[in-house]
Amino acid sequence: MRTKRAAAWAVVVLMLGAAVGGCGEQSDKGPSGSSAKHTKSQREPEDKSDSRVVEDDDEHTVLELSDGRQVSLRFTRRGLEAQHRDASDDAWSARKTVYETGTKPCQGIRAKAYRDTVWLAAGFGEYCRDGEEPQEVIAAVATGGLSSWTTDPTEKSGVWPKARIRDGGARVDFVDRSWVNTTTLTWRKGSGFAKVATEWKPIHPWFVGRWRAADGSQQVTIHQVEPGRSARVVIESRTGPRCKGSAVVTGIDQHDLSMSNFKLDQGTRAVNCPPEETEYSFDVKSSDGPLRLRKIGNHPKTVLTYERAG
């Protein structure tokens, strides 16, 4: 029997390793420096959905647009199909395949519209309705006469939770926010879907820089977020067996940093190279340190203390 995992609609964070590449060291900018500048982007204006849902269950959704037209979206054995009809017409158009797959659908279709731009998000998975994650996740957009749909099947761990409409319906952003990053899939009228973009949340600048363990055993270099990449840590042994590698780091809060997806580049794994990802975190309380490697749990314990080295 297959083990049930988190619900298909939950927003989970399992993309860390796949979304980043490379782990070479870069120059450091000092105690609170960073090789990337982070400015708070201005929020772009959005167009509020003006459609309403007139029918909705696990298998299908019917939207009514602001001009009175209706769009019917339905799961079938072949995937996902759409129909539409005018406000003054009882007859539905011929069925149009939005997405073809033999995989079983998840529960429900998320769909909204602004004027004549309709967008949807849905998921498919063999055991999706039993609590497993979807194997296939799609976003789709139709405009104008609604006879043609543009679809993007994206590899991700959960169905797109939100869509934002902009530029009078000429742009739709499918957005998935987590405590680590924001992932956005953008559709534009005339060009269709672009590649998925991931914006990582910067770590606190107190962590950034080069640190050396007080006992001389290792050196840790922490790099800030750069465009298209998350923050990273490079761990290098200074005594004992050679061990050098890097990992993704994310801010738990202002003072704590978690690590994941360690990649060994040189030598062999050694004591605290790397520390067990689910059992340890890095901790710093001020701009000049010290940095501490802490064993987390009911009784936190400092394993290593580091002094700033650059």
Write the layout of secondary structure elements.
Layout: H1 16-19, E1 52-56, E2 60-64, E3 70-76, E4 79-85, E5 96-100, E6 110-114, E7 117-124, E8 136-142, E9 149-154, E10 162-166, E11 171-177, E12 181-188, E13 192-193, E14 197-200, E15 209-213, E16 218-223, E17 232-237, E18 243-251, E19 256-267, E20 280-284, E21 291-295, E22 301-308
Describe this protein's structure.
- There is one protein chain.
- The protein has one helix at residues 16-19, and strands at residues 52-56, 60-64, 70-76, 79-85, 96-100, 110-114, 117-124, 136-142, 149-154, 162-166, 171-177, 181-188, 192-193, 197-200, 209-213, 218-223, 232-237, 243-251, 256-267, 280-284, 291-295, 301-308.
- The chain is mainly beta and 310 residues long.
- Strands 15-16-17-18-19-20-21-22 form an eight-stranded antiparallel beta barrel. A five-stranded antiparallel sheet has the order 1-2-3-4-5, with no helix packed on it.
